[in-house]
Automatic annotation (TrEMBL):
Signal peptide: none annotated. GO terms for biological process: protein maturation. It comes from Halosegnis rubeus. Residues 36-131 form the PurM-like N-terminal domain. SUPFAM superfamilies: PurM C-terminal domain-like, PurM N-terminal domain-like. Residues 312-335 are annotated as: Disordered. The lineage of its organism: Archaea, Methanobacteriati, Methanobacteriota, Stenosarchaea group, Halobacteria. This is Hydrogenase expression protein.
């Protein structure tokens, strides 16, 4: 297990996977390394469910942090091609968080939930000693649909085109530009462009638009970014992925922020960036549709028989631990 960040595939397989409670027939997709969601069969309908930690970085301002936190959680159901419909949330708040600060975050989450038709079903809210920002609890997102509508995370097929939305490292750029603007050593215009990248985390609308095409797999490029996510997609589907680094789109401010903090944009968290295996006949039409919604996207590679992820013939490995964690600790210690 890495010192920071989510566990790797080996730890999951050896320590977590053998101990998943009762083996029930209604669990159609259960826990798997690198898979964003599970699926239950409830009366013939698919109940898609995903759980994520809640992060409220004070440096973002609590209103913006609340929306940011919910968008990250909602993505893991949306990538199944199913609209998120319900939210269960547990807040374990640090003692220093004021009522007003929590209210700002919660109202922002409520606003975003209403935009998407998501209802809060249950929750728990309390302050506890020993809790520290930014990690303040967890949320579970639910969505209901037909089983045949679910886009499986391991569904990439030989012959698919690989489409990537938003571009790499937008989340990382947004977080560092917002929390450490003066430490980056960048001009004000570039910092502002980086800060705007936090809005790119919202991707429910993008995922649901992609579900209207012949999309075979979707994955949100969270910890370890595009490179880690592609390795997870390729491994779960048993296919080979070849990418062209020059084909990626990069949002304004991303490369400059990543250069400033010394990370590879392909290896750092980028929630809201969707990795999509899609029928090549639909790929360009999907790019056009996303562009109409204001989301840049590009076809950056292909899926074929084989295994692994390759760039110019060189195999790319899973980063293991997201490099942005170390950069975050370094910048935070300098404040």
């Amino acid at each position: 297990m890495p010192e920071l960040g989510k566990v790797g595939g080996q730890f999951f397989r050896e320590t977590i996977y053998p101990h998943l409670g009762t083996d029930r027939e209604d669990v159609r997709i259960g826990p798997q390394a690198g898979v964003d969601f599970g699926v239950l069969d409830i009366g013939g309908q698919a109940l898609v469910v995903a759980t994520d930690p809640l992060s409220l970085p004070p440096g973002l301002g609590f209103e913006r942090a609340g929306r940011f936190a919910l968008d990250i959680c909602l993505a893991d159901v949306a990538v199944a091609g199913i609209s998120p419909s319900h939210l269960a949330v547990g807040f374990s708040l640090p003692p220093e968080m004021t009522d007003a600060q929590f209210g700002d975050a919660w109202r922002a989450m409520d606003d975003r939930a209403r935009e998407l038709g998501v209802s809060v079903a249950t929750g728990h809210t309390a302050r506890y000693a020993g809790v520290q920002f930014p990690w303040v609890g967890a949320a579970t997102i639910l969505g209901v649909g037909d089983h045949e509508e679910v886009i499986r995370p391991d569904g990439a097929q030989p012959g698919d085109a690989l489409l990537v939305t938003t571009g790499p490292a937008s989340e990382t750029a947004g977080l560092f530009a917002s929390m450490f603007p003066e430490q980056l050593g960048l001009d004000a215009e570039t910092v502002a462009a980086g800060q705007a990248r936090l809005d790119d985390v919202a991707c429910v609308e993008d995922a649901l638009a992609l579900a209207e095409f012949d999309t075979h797999a979707m994955h949100d490029a969270t910890e370890c970014g595009v490179q880690g996510g592609l390795v997870e997609m390729a491994d779960s589907a048993g296919v080979r992925v070849d990418i062209d680094r020059d084909a990626f789109t990069y949002a304004d401010g991303v490369r400059a922020v990543c250069d400033a903090i010394g990370v590879d944009p392909l290896q750092v968290t980028s929630s809201g960036t969707l990795l999509v295996a899609i029928d090549p006949d639909d790929a360009e039409r999907a790019v056009e549709r996303l562009d109409e919604q204001g989301t840049p996207a590009a076809v950056v590679g292909t899926v074929s028989a084989g295994e692994g992820v390759f760039e110019s013939g060189e195999r790319l490995e899973h980063p293991g631990s997201d490099p942005s964690w170390a950069a975050y600790d370094e910048y935070r210690s300098e404040r």
